Structures are given as C-alpha cells and as structure tokens.
Amino acid sequence: MLGADLVVLPLLVAVAYALRLNTLTPQIHDAWLFVAAPLVAVPILYFTGFYKSIVRYLGAEVAWSLLAGVLISVAVLAGASYMVADAAIPRSIFLIWGMLAVLYLGGSRFLMRRFLVKILGGLNRQPVAVFGAGGAGAQLVSGLQSSTEFFPALVVDDDTSKQGTLLAGVPVVPRKALEKAARQGKVSAVLMAVPSISRPRRMEIVRWLETLNIRVQTVPGIADIAMGKARLEEVRDVAIEDLLGRDPVPPRQDLLHRCVSGKHVLVTGAGGSIGSELCRQILKLSPSQLVLFEQSEFALYAIEKELRKLAVSQGLKVDIVPVLGSVVNRGLMARLCAEHRVDTVYHAAAYKHVPIVESNPSSGVRNNILGTLEAAQGAEAAGVQHFILVSTDKAVRPTNVMGATKRFAELVLQAMASRGSDTVFSMVRFGNVLGSSGSVVPLFRDQICHGGPVTVTHPDVIRYFMTIPEASQLVIQAGAMARGGEVFVLDMGEPVRIVDLAITMIHLMGLSVKDESNPHGDIGLSFSGLRPGEKLYEELIIGECSVRTEHEMIMQASEESLNWDEVQFALEAFRKALERGDNAAMKSLLRTYVAGYAPGSTGSQETAAMATRELPRRVSNAVSLPD
C-alpha cells in the first residue's frame, strides 16, 4: 500500500491541476511538486500512525491519523511553494490535492479491507445473522467482519425505521427475510445482540428463532461487559437459564442487610451449589466475619479462594474463616459459633441427590436429620440469633428418603422453636435451582453435544426452576423476616415440563428432534422411567393454607408439626437404627413421623396430570409423546 501511495500521490497533483484549470491537458511548470508531494506526505502519514494499521482489521481510528497527516502535508507543501523562486502555483491546488489524497488514501484502504474480509476471509467462515441493530449489534457486526469464524450476512431488527438501512455495510432486514435465508441455508446461526432487553422479550424472540431450526447464540450481558468479565464479540450458546421463569424481582435491601451486614455469619455446606452462592451474596453485604463450614477440602479451598479474590476486587474488609469439618460432629458447631461469636447461621449442608440418598438412607438420616440437629443445638447453645435451614420442595409429601429426611429436619427446628428458644429458627423451601450440581440442564447440554439421545425420565415430569443467585437472595430475605418456627416458601414462577426443556435445548443448538414424525432428525429422546423416589410433580406446600409476607415473592406455609418430646423420641429411635445399620427401620420411622411420606409412589397423580394439561407447550413444534 505504501508503494502504491508513492505512485498515486504524484498523479493526484496532475488531477488537481486539471480540476483547477478545467482542462485535461493543463500546462504545469512546477514539476518539483510531483516529487515533493509523496516525499512529504508519506513520512508525515507514517509518523501520524496511518501506516501502522493492519488493513484487514482497519477501524474508524485510522481516519484521525489520515486527516492529520494530509492536513500537515498540505500545510508543508503550501509553505514550501512560497519559498521557491518563480513559484506561481494557485493556492487552491493544495486544497484540491488534499481532498483527493483523503479520498484515495481512505478509499483504497477500506476497499482493500472489504476485499480481504469478504473474498479471502469468507472462504471458510460461517454466514450468520445478527438479531438487533442497536449499539451492541453494530459493535458485534464490526467485530465479526474481522473474525475468522463468522461472517455477518444480515442484521435482523423489528424496528421498521431501521429496516432497509445498512449497518457497517450489512443490510438490516425484518424477520421474514431471516426466515427465507434460514430455509435457503444462507445463514448457519443467529447471534442475539440484545443484551439489555427484559427476560419476557428475550423469551419471545428465542421462541420464534427456535422455529427456524438454526443455532441460536448470544452476546454477554451488559453487566458482564461493564465489569470486564466478557467482551461483546464473545458469543456463546443461549443459556437456558435466561429463558426459564421470570425477570428476577429486585431484592429488598433492608431485608438483605438485617441479619448479615456488620454481623458474624456462618454458612454450612459453604462449598456446595447453594452454599457457595449464599457466601457470594453475603460477602457483598459486608458482614464483619464470614465463616465457611464445609466437609469437602477441595470445595472449601475453591470457595475460599474465590471469595478472597472477590473481596479484594471490590474493596471489602471481611474476615473470611475457612473451617473443614462435618455438621454431624457433636459439639463442633457449638464451639465454632461460640469461638467466632456467630450471629446468623445459614444451614445449607445436606445430601440432596435423590437416587443416591435412596440407596444410602443411613447417610441421608445421619447428615440431613442428625446433622441439622447438631447444627441447631450448637447454634442455640452459643447464643446465635438466627438459624435458617435451606430446605426443598421434595420435603412436601415426599416419595423419597432425601425429601423425608429434609422434612424431618424441618420438624426438628419447628419443635425447637415451639418449646421456646432465644435463637430464631426458620426454614426456607424452594424447588430446583439452575446450574446446581446434578442439575438437568448441563446433563442435557452434554448429551446433545455428544449426539444424543437426551434422556428424560418421564413425558409428564414437571419441575419448578429458579436461578441460584435469586434463590440465595430470597433465602437471606426470608430468614430476616422470621420470628421463630416459620416455613417460608419461595414463589418459583411457572413450572416447566422437562421434555419441553430438552426439546428447546436441542432446537437452540440448531438441531432437530428425531422421532416418529421426523425419523431423520439429529437428536433423539429417550424416556428412561422415573428413578427410585422421584415424583412427577413437585409441590411447595403440604397443606392448602399459606399466607403472604412483607415480601411479594415469599409466602409462609401453615403446617402441622410435632412437639419436642415426640421429636426427641424419634431422634433416639433414629440413632439406634443407625447403630444397627437398619435401613428398613429408618424408612419405617420416616413413614411414622413424616406426614405424607409414600415411598415408591410418583407423587400426586391428579395434581401432575392437571398441571400437565394446563401447562402450555414451551416450544412450537414439540415432538409427539407416547400416552
């Protein structure tokens, strides 16, 4: 390009004369200008940085170096002309030459850039569509034009005022044009560049894109970009978490801070899915001390390292104390709470994987029941103000050992609260959290990436879902409202049919479902049957009675409980059964004391069937399911 400039810049002097004198054959007596123009302009352009830009990745910043270089060159040449004897060069020649130089130098670079990007780079790049012609879309298109992986073929936007325009040279079109391009195979994926829209709006767009059977990806959110966690051009698959539930309700700051800010807080199970997120949320609320209690050495190491880094990056002065141990160790919680003068305990330590606990009932009883008892009594003995148990919807009319042990853990705390205690005991019950260990979403994603089939236990299985951060914030807020013995229930939004979730994930990855109506599809569905202890439909309240609280997303359940003498008698029976290793006796005790525990059933069939009928399909072209 520099060599071309040395040839063209002198020719532009002749063109400037021709325009100025209005003739194709002007008489030019000042031949020195033909030599001076390139010898002056090229070094100046070099020092302004014009030649430092790589043509293929040329951006708008090159315009400033070009304008500065040409203006300085015009000034130098005009000044030199007045210093040369017999110089009779019209002053307008320099202005005309400068404008021609800008047109040539800028135009040649951008034409060459377009050639390199579209011709050479497009040979092995995938054509994609960008959804969104706003600021994020413009930046994404600009980034993709220099990408070696994707090529922006078109931009889609619902704003009619933008349709028909060009965005960085790429046409902006309505949805119908994308439908046509998808049918003709002219685009291989859609990249969503609408990071700031609401969740309902995002869901509507993705549900429509899902019908096109092409891969749907998205750019990171504005918050992640602003915090430096991601770059705009870093596209990723659409997170199914973005499509479930609703827009999170902003937390009430007074409830968040009530039991945490300036206090000594202890979290059991701090390295688990819920416990670790609780720790992250608690750290942001600036407690005086945060005690991490965890039995897994690696999990404790990982969460401590993450929290210390987070504290340094956000300038938080919080004393973080890692403690390795188990809640079943008698007296350990009392010593910890007393030594660290703990004000609030969030008890998230539990065995929660249904089939595993079903196969190991003694471990479930020891950890979920006796572990909760030891933690609660230790906190009470040390004078802890608030003790909050993280419970589960599987504790409602349980069909498995895990749910039954969690319900009995609730009964323990309810009994301790009813007999009188200076410690405020409460429970927070919610459903499945997205991204937790054992969650179905990463399992489905892995199965799709490996070519399927996607295994679903039953066509009618329905679950509630909530994101881990929202669930953790609601746990903190619910605990702050407790007066003693309450069972709080979180508003989980609308339930989701798991088979629809699987189909949605298949479509969003640009694949089709393989079934009887589409035998040549990409990914099949396999129904493996309910696992031991699983229910078709989870519930959040045992009875029919629940009342609203001061928080719109939190309800309080009104449920029967046992008195402290009954609980003590049952606990002693559990201990004796554990000593004998008598799993049958432990299950029998759970049936005796946990109302509604029906091992082996699939839950409320009528409720599940009704919910299945009333729940709308989440996808427009769902597969045909067997009766």
Distance between the ends: 70 Å
How would you state the average pLDDT, rounded?
80
Question: How much helix is in the residues?
Answer: 40-55%
The CATH topology annotation of the largest domain reads as: Rossmann fold
Helical stretch count?
Answer: 21
Transmembrane segments: 28-50, 62-82, 88-106
Keywords: Membrane, Transmembrane, Transmembrane helix
InterPro entries: NAD(P)-bd_dom_sf, Polysac_CapD-like, Polysaccharide_Synthase-Rel, SAM-dependent_MTases_sf
Protein name: Polysaccharide biosynthesis protein
Please give a structural write-up:
Helix content is 46%, strand content 15%. The chain has 627 residues and is an alpha/beta fold. It folds into three domains: 118 residues, no CATH class; 114 residues, NAD(P)-binding Rossmann-like Domain (Rossmann fold), CATH 3.40.50.720; 362 residues, Rossmann fold (3-Layer(aba) Sandwich), CATH 3.40.50. The strands form five sheets. A nine-stranded mixed beta sheet has the order 10-9-8-11-12-13-18-23-22, with helices on both faces. A seven-stranded mixed beta sheet has the order 3-4-2-1-5-6-7, sandwiched between helices. Strands 15-21-20 form a three-stranded parallel beta sheet. Helix 2 runs antiparallel to helix 3. Belongs to the polysaccharide synthase family. It holds the Pfam family CoA_binding_3. This is Polysaccharide biosynthesis protein. Keywords: Membrane, Transmembrane, Transmembrane helix.
